[in-house]
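[Discussion] Sanity-checking designs against the backbone

I'm trying to build intuition for which residues belong where. Below is a structure token string of 313 positions. I'd appreciate it if someone posts a full sequence so I can compare it with mine line by line.
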């Protein structure tokens, strides 16, 4: 495959390693200072009483022994993000829903598995800031209902191939070290003959995916961006080096991979920087393991500008 030559100068906001990307140590120190939810447990876990008996809560309690668990009748609404609180609520809608495509656009039929909302990675451009009506990280605790609903819908249309993803309203793996949810999802989809699961993330948190029977039915995907954009606008995400290392591990475990350049942004030197990311991908993983690479545009809801200016002055 022809290599793409990149010529760019990386801004020096943080000390980078020789490859031009944040070293693992620098990344961890930066996250510890600015994005505590990404690397350390929440101080408090608020659980709605209606889901307190779900198996997912027992697992959370076991993995978050130092966190305070508070059971409430209904989690109160908030306006500001609290990085020290994780919410676990009952979801009262449909877990499996069509991807919310733009009106008048031809959609691809992708389905969203709605298992939680919110993200603490702090990407400045993220549309979720304007799209969601509650800011905190929230999981849906009625997971038994989730699996039952998905199984019913898949069984009702055995001739249809379902492409299902969990990374639309949250990061698929951000909370996985605590929830272990992937260890339930992946084997479940391995048993479904007419469904493919996509786990989409900006993290390197893939340890739970090791030694799982995925049956080729799970695709692990990463959202990526140009190096200078990632540094300035994705400060809470894992470095490119860590993301690609995680992708290589998943490929070794037999998973198929995907990469999403989303959003693509035009800036001085954009062609070289995006080309360099492609080179890094193909240097790290076998292209035969990659099932798709997608491109996305900056989604700009009218209220997003005000939110970005307030949160990232």
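Best answer:
Here's mine. Compare freely.
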């Amino acid at each position: 495959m022809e290599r793409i030559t990149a010529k760019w100068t990386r801004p020096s906001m943080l000390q980078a390693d020789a490859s031009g990307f944040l070293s693992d140590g620098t990344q961890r120190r930066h996250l510890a200072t600015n994005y505590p939810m990404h690397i350390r447990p929440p101080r408090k876990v608020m659980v709605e009483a209606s889901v307190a008996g779900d198996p997912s809560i027992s697992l959370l309690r076991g993995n978050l022994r130092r966190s305070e668990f508070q059971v409430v009748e209904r989690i109160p609404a908030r306006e500001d993000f609290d990085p020290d609180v994780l919410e676990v609520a009952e979801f009262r809608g449909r877990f499996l829903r069509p991807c919310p495509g733009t009106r008048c656009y031809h959609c691809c039929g992708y389905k969203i598995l709605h298992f939680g909302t919110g993200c603490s990675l702090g990407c400045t451009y993220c549309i979720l800031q304007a799209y969601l009506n509650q800011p905190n990280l929230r999981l849906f605790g009625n997971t038994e209902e989730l699996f039952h609903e998905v199984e019913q819908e898949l069984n009702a249309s055995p001739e249809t191939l379902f492409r299902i993803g969990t990374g639309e309203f949250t990061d698929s793996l951000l909370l996985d070290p605590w929830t272990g949810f992937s260890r339930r999802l992946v084997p479940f989809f391995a048993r479904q003959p007419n469904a493919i699961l996509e786990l989409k993330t900006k993290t390197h948190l893939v340890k739970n995916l090791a030694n799982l029977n995925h049956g080729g039915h799970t695709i692990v995907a990463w959202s990526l961006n140009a190096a200078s954009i990632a540094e300035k606008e994705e400060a809470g995400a894992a470095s490119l080096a860590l993301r690609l290392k995680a992708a290589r591990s998943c490929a070794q475990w037999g998973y198929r991979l995907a990469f999403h350049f989303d959003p693509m942004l035009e800036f001085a030197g954009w062609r070289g920087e995006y080309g360099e990311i492609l080179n890094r991908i193909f240097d790290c993983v076998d292209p035969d393991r990659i099932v798709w690479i997608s491109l996305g545009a900056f989604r700009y809801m009218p209220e997003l500008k005000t939110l970005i200016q307030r949160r990232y002055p």
